[in-house]
Amino acid sequence: MRILVVEDEKKTASFVRKALQAEGFAVDVCHGGDEALAAAAATPFDVLVLDIMLPGRDGLSVLRQLRERQNRTPVLLLSARGEVNERVEGLNMGADDYLPKPFDLVELVARVRALTRRTADNKSTVLRVADLTLDTLTRQARRGGADIELTAREYRLLEFLMRSAGRLCGRMMILEKVWDYGFDPGTNLVDVYIKRLREKIDADFEPKLLQTVRGMGYLLKEPS
C-alpha cells in the first residue's frame, strides 16, 4: 500500500513517514498543496494523509480539486485547529476521516490502516499484465500458472512496475517509489534488481514483458 503524506511541518512529516514505513507502507511526502495535486495525478495512492493548514493552496482546496477530478482516493484530514465547522466542511467535500492535532502516531497508523482496508474492499487486489499476476494481499506472483518467489524488495519493485504498466519508469523514479530515496546513491542498485526480477518473470516465459529503454529507464507491458 502506498500512502501520500501532505504536511508542511517537516518534523511532523518525518515522524508520520517513519511510523507508516515501520508498519510496512510505502510513503511519499509533499509539503505543499500544488505539489500534492501533481503527485496524486502521477501516482495511484491508496490513502492520502492531508494537513488542512498548508502554505499556498490549503488542504481543503486540494481535497476539492481531487474530488472534482474524480479522484476517489481515501483522505485522512489533519488539522491543528480542530474546529467543528472545518471538520464538517472537509467531510462534506469527500474526506473519509479526520484527526485533530496533536495526535498519537499509533492512532494515525490505525486510521490509515482502516482506510486501506476500505480501499482493498472496493477494488481488485490482483494486478495483471498479460499472464503475469500479482496478488497485493497475499503478495503472491504467478506467471503461466507457476508461482514466482519474490523477496520483499523484488515484490515492491514488481508492484510498482505493474501499477505503472505501459508507462516508462526512470531510475530516479524507481529509487523514490521502491527504495524511498530522494537522491541517486550513485550505484547500479536498480539495474541489479531489474536483472533479478527479469530472471524470475521473463527468463522462462514468452512474451518478454520487462523492457529496457536505453538511457531512460524500464517499461513493463504486454507486447502489441
Report on the structure:
With 224 residues, the protein is an alpha/beta fold. The protein folds into 2 domains: 2-122, Rossmann fold; 126-220, Winged helix-like DNA-binding domain superfamily/Winged helix DNA-binding domain (Arc Repressor Mutant, subunit A), CATH 1.10.10. It is built from 8 helices and 11 strands. It is elongated.
Give the key terms.
224 residues; alpha/beta; Arc Repressor Mutant, subunit A; 2 domains; five-stranded parallel sheet; four-stranded antiparallel sheet; 8 helices; 11 strands; 42% helix; elongated
CATH class of the largest domain: Alpha Beta
If you compute it from the alpha carbons, what radius of gyration comes out, rounded to the nearest whole angstrom? 19 Å
Helix count from the secondary structure assignment: 8
CATH superfamily of the largest domain: Response regulator
Count of distinct structural domains: 2
Shape: elongated
Order of H and E elements: EHEHEHEHEHEEEEHHHEE
Residue share in helix? 40-55%
Briefly summarize what is shown.
With 224 residues, the chain is α/β, with parallel strands linked by helices. The protein contains 8 helices and 11 strands. The protein has 2 domains: 121 residues, Response regulator (Rossmann fold, 3-Layer(aba) Sandwich); 95 residues, Winged helix-like DNA-binding domain superfamily/Winged helix DNA-binding domain (Arc Repressor Mutant, subunit A, Orthogonal Bundle).
